[in-house]
Amino acid sequence: MFWFIILFPLMIYPWGFDPYYTTVKANYLYLFVFGTWAYLLFKRKYRTVMPEKQDTNVGILLLLFLCLVEISAAFSGRSYTSVYGLIDRKEGLLSYFSYVSVLLFSYRLFDMKKLNKILAGMAIVSAMVGIYGILQHYQLDFFPRNSAMRNYPGTYTFFDNPNFFGSYLVLALLVTIPIYLTAKNIKYSSLYLLTISLTFASLIFSNTRSAYLGVFFGLVFVTVFVIMKRKSLWKKWAGLLLTFGLILLVINFSESDRYIERINTVVKDSYSIATNQTTGREGSNRFFIWKQSLPLVKEYFWIGSGPDSFEFAYPNDDEEVRQFLHGSIVDKAHNEYLQMAITLGTPALITYLLLIFVILQKAFRAVKKVDGQEKVFLYGLIAAIVGYLVQAFFNISTVPVAPLFWAILGMTLARSSRVLNQAKELNNEKPYSKETVQSA
User: Residue 279: how many CA atoms within 13 Å on its side-chain side?
Assistant: First the structure.
């Protein structure tokens, strides 16, 4: 589990007729998940991944969510797509089963004492991905591109799409922040600052506004809950924000204010929507797609149209749609929650949101019981979840990124449960240090 989480972004196979990384990553994911389940069944250790007694509600929500996805797939009328997903998306029933499994594995099989190591590993890998993203921006990437992105001038690295790359960068950047803030050695502080800087530069080059917003809200969360209450971290935080500002200014200046203008469109589009002056073009046509999609929520309310079947549910043949989008086929809602409501059904969406709510609620309870480094790590995990949820409002779940998000959910649940269990055993309601937690 440790190495899978760290190395998953790099799991690619760039050769063959048309190297599409989503398909490859889906195969790696299935191999890992079903291989782990086979090992647990063979060794008769499958009970070790069952939720603990105090987390029964999480287990129920996971089982209910998976059952709802299975029902949606069974009644979709598009069996192959619902099970395996679209040929270039791969988010069918098998992928959702894998996501649930990854959460359970990271929750029950991962040693929480290695959390700082796994976050450090994710930081190093994100720096490697970031370097490749920077090279790709300057047309210096050395792996072959697939047919869909062969002439694309932007940055997407190993995620097949700049929006999906952006959603990965939100997670990668925000989980690196706690180890940067808690590093006491100047050498390690400098190393993590470098990795965050490379990730941030690649984030800018991704040109993904949803990722910009996700990182922004994640940084605001860390500022409010971590930095403002710890004067010892102000200097580090100021240095990080100053570094971000300098990177943005240098890149923006070198490319004729392109990125500041891109960021400004977020404000302009928001103003147009707030003042009811929309054209439908807001958010790269997202607002039009959302308006056309909302009636489908009622139509597919209970069981959805089937996993990964949005393309078939959306009115692509409608004349207004064809004219507005110039004949382009819409195969995603550009909103993870709307996508789930239409393809999996509203009950599945509610279950998914309840699952995240329960995990976050437990994390906020746990963070009150600890102090020092432990508190910063928990807040960092929460910030990563918050950042992902924000960007998901303009993006969708995807196989190259979703397993990492579900793994972070599992790690957050495991860390929170461990803290609350030890607090209960100590029968001490006052905050205690990390050293007290570890010695318990």
Answer: 9
